[in-house]
Amino acid sequence: MARAYIGNIPCEVTIDKDLGDNWAIAVIPPHASPIPGSIQLAPLVVKLQGEDRDRCLAGGLEILLKAGKIDRFDV
Are 14 and 3 spatial neighbours (Cβ–Cβ below 8 Å)? Predict the structure, then answer.
């Protein structure tokens, strides 16, 4: 199971197949933020096209990492 981190907050990662060879990779922050007074974070979604599920998952998380949306991830 993949896990992404926004700061020190672990977030669930899901991957769903769309039409054809399209994949939707979502990083879902927890509902209850451990930081008092903080705002709720919205899910981050990346869509990729490819045949290999695992490569699309790693690629989507790498895109979010390079864009500065997440700080690190484990696949």
Answer: no
Distance, CA of 33 to CA of 37 (rounded, Å): 9
pTM of the model: 0.84
Helix (H, G, I), strand (E, B) or coil at 59: helix
Cα 64 to Cα 33: distance, rounded to the nearest angstrom? 20
pLDDT digits 0-9 by tens, 33-65:
555 666 667 899 999 999 999 999 999 999 999
Q: Please list, in sequence order, all residues whose beta carbon lies within 8 angstroms of the beta carbon of residue 58, skipping any fewer than 6 positions away.
A: 75
Cα–Cα distance between 73 and 6 in angstroms, integer?
9
